[in-house]
Design a protein that fits this description.
Two copies of one chain form a homodimer. By secondary structure, chain A is of the alpha/beta class. Chain A has helices at residues 19-34, 49-58, 66-90, 122-129, 155-166, 200-210, 216-225, 246-252, 281-291, 320-327, 357-367, 391-401; strands spanning 6-11, 38-43, 95-98, 105-107, 116-119, 133-137, 140-142, 148-150, 171-176, 197-199, 229-233, 241-244, 260-264, 267-276, 296-301, 308-316, 334-338, 341-347, 374-378, 381-387. In chain A, a hairpin with a 5-residue loop joins strand 7 and strand 8. In chain A, helix 1 packs across helix 3 (66-90) and helix 5 (155-166) runs parallel beside helix 7 (216-225). The mean pLDDT of chain A is 90.
Chain lengths: 406, 406
């Protein structure tokens, strides 16, 4: 038997939101199979199932055990995968649904935010050889004890990419409710254009708004294991956005200087004053935050005065309280939180060969009289923190200033 | 460590119908634990969850694969068990929920109607040793391939009894929405009284209406493995009905002649005319029905005329069509179906030592001018098939005639 190309298709919650939508997903899966592919479909829970389950738990306790939450919410994907399998079968095509555990997805022990350690693909391979479409419940796995774990929000993307990697799939298609990745948020700037292809690094940098399209962790996984991604709409047949190796992308198109403009209004600025200015202080501060699993983004250390340092950084809004509580355990310091901030970023692998991109960004913002409070850069991204009220203006100025509209 | 007595508590769908009810279940479980018991709780799905899931599948196909149905509906019990575990934890008591598979319940391969082959209790024992209340999702197990199977409707009772047996539990409490087993249906006869204790055989015979209280298969399992049952209400603390070994029951109370009057309106009478009157014909007929998994109840073979036999029997209403189709494959016969029938039975281990019980039953019915269409007997039961329209009258006459009211 010639081994078929395997492809992995992933459908999010809105794509399987009701029975009619599930029927469309089934048709798409069958179409791919009829083209001679081995088809593995990863599904999220239907629409707001997960939220309803979380709400049920919320009526019981404000601090449910993570193990029991995983036991609870993992049923959402089990339901949608069983329904999809039935739908495929009803259309005359053999199909089987598998929970994360049945699909061989072994994770670590961190309930609610588990990481995939290993995938035993024997069962999936066996079912594919039997000419079946295999539907896998996304977002979940089991740990070494056989207990159900979930991969955290957006974890279905990670399931799909990890399966694509383990199965050596030709590519992984992420079906979503948008046509692909845009040069910026079309809700903010109507001139936003769809990007044909992106490198993994660009996708990672764009993911601050791109998280709605594909989860950051999934892109990291795809990059590490070189899984080609195709982000596209589940409601039409239009070609979406390909995310692939930088080199392969270079072969296909001339590189523009800037690929996209992104923003994030979900962070707060934390300023810590009165830190002793000696080695190890920053390590202690961020060590305490890391211990509480608080991700820190932009960090700026101010010039030291009277031997005391001030450090500012941003954290996710939902981590604000925990961050404040954690930092306040350090003696003799003051903490200030600023919720009125937004982060605007320009992203593009092309900026590496175009000097002066940062200067251009700063002057485009200055022209609009927008004050920059913090700056951070990566080789392919420049981010500025501005007042939240100015974020739309900033995005428009950058999108147009860098010529992304044409 | 002294090994504690283990008890198994089973709560049906109405007992875990909403968060408030789940809280009451949690309190009951904790109360039992505080009395020094090792507590295992088996739960059904919340209220009409299972029906909602079946409805979802019904919107997709009229003939869903049984494997996928089990994958789908098993989520109902997983949800309720996770919610109960959270509730127990919220009340400050350690608890863990387990799916059927995690609880070690291994079944055969017959999806939707699987039988328990074996229970590996290691995991439950480990959790009990850690002083946890263990919540097990009822109604489900896994087969040798790790695929989810369900035990059929009422299967949570079987889960509870099977666990009680495997764990050598002291007894198994079946919590339901009635106070126990009654001498007849209180909705039919307001003078019905609660029975203090029953033998397994009596419970089995009563189960034609008793199915609402406990599933037949669970009683059979309890009898085979001598698991003492306590059927009681989840809404009060009143002592319910004990079901136990005949001998033990005899020690406790003087045996009444008749324990209860039951009825069943869910059957149809099938009459087959024109069968050749030779050995093997009945075996062929009922063999065909057994092959289709159709359970046959009362059987009456009429006197043979012109070397042709007629056989009447009853089957469950839902099997009527399949039965007709199956029988019609036999050549040269006629089939008649009669839906207008009901079965009335009197049950009591005491009747073995009281001759004339059958005669009394027939005359009580005759007094009311109720015609008897079919009769069947077991050592502790006599059943008569009557017109459906006369069933209430028949029950009242028997309940009062055998002195069950006092």
């Amino acid at each position: 038997m010639v081994r078929k190309d395997i492809i992995v298709l992933k459908f999010g919650g809105t794509s399987v939101g009701d029975i009619d939508k599930i029927k469309r997903v089934a048709e798409r899966a069958i179409k791919s199979k009829n083209k001679g592919k081995g088809v593995v479909v990863v599904v999220s829970a239907m629409g707001d199932t997960t939220d309803s389950l979380i709400e049920l738990a919320g009526a019981i306790t404000q601090k449910p055990s993570r193990r029991e939450m995983d036991m609870l919410v993992s049923t959402g994907e089990q339901i949608s995968s069983a329904l999809l399998a039935m739908t495929v079968q009803e259309k005359g095509c053999e199909c089987v649904s598998l929970t994360g555990g049945q699909a061989g997805i072994l994770t670590d022990r961190f309930y609610s935010n588990a990481k995939i350690l290993n995938i035993k693909v024997d069962r999936i391979i066996k079912e594919l050889k039997n000419d079946k479409i295999v539907v896998v419940a996304g977002f979940q796995g089991i740990n070494i004890n056989g207990d159900i774990t979930t991969l955290g929000r957006g974890g279905s993307d990670t399931t799909a990419v990890a399966l694509a990697s383990a199965l050596k799939a030709k590519y992984c298609e992420i079906y979503t409710d948008v046509d692909g990745v845009y040069s910026t948020d079309p809700n903010m700037v109507k001139e936003a254009i769809k990007i044909e292809s992106l490198s993994y690094d660009e996708m990672l940098e764009l993911a601050s708004y791109g998280a709605k399209v594909i989860h950051l962790r999934a892109v990291e996984f795809a990059k590490k294991h070189n899984v080609k991604l195709h982000i596209r709409s589940s409601f039409n047949d239009i070609e979406g956005t390909w995310v692939m190796d930088d080199f392969e992308k270079d072969m296909r198109m001339e590189r523009p200087m800037i690929t996209g403009v992104t923003y994030d209004v979900g962070e707060v600025k934390v300023s810590v004053f009165g830190l002793e200015d000696r080695p190890g202080i920053a390590a202690d501060l961020f060590g305490r935050l890391a211990e509480k699993n608080i991700n820190v983004d932009l960090i700026v250390q101010n010039v030291s005065e009277k031997n005391l340092a001030a450090i500012s950084f941003t954290v996710k809004s939902e981590d604000m309280e925990l961050a404040e509580k954690t930092i306040n355990k350090i003696e003799n310091i003051n903490v200030e939180m600023d919720k009125d901030i937004a982060k605007v970023s320009i992203v593009g692998a092309g900026m590496q060969s175009h000097p002066g991109v940062a200067a251009k960004m700063f002057s485009l913002l200055a022209e609009k009289d927008i004050n920059i409070e913090m700056i951070s850069t990566s080789p392919i991204r420049i981010s500025c923190v501005v007042k939240k009220s100015r974020v739309k203006e900033a995005i428009k100025a950058l999108h147009s200033g860098f010529g992304l509209e044409k």
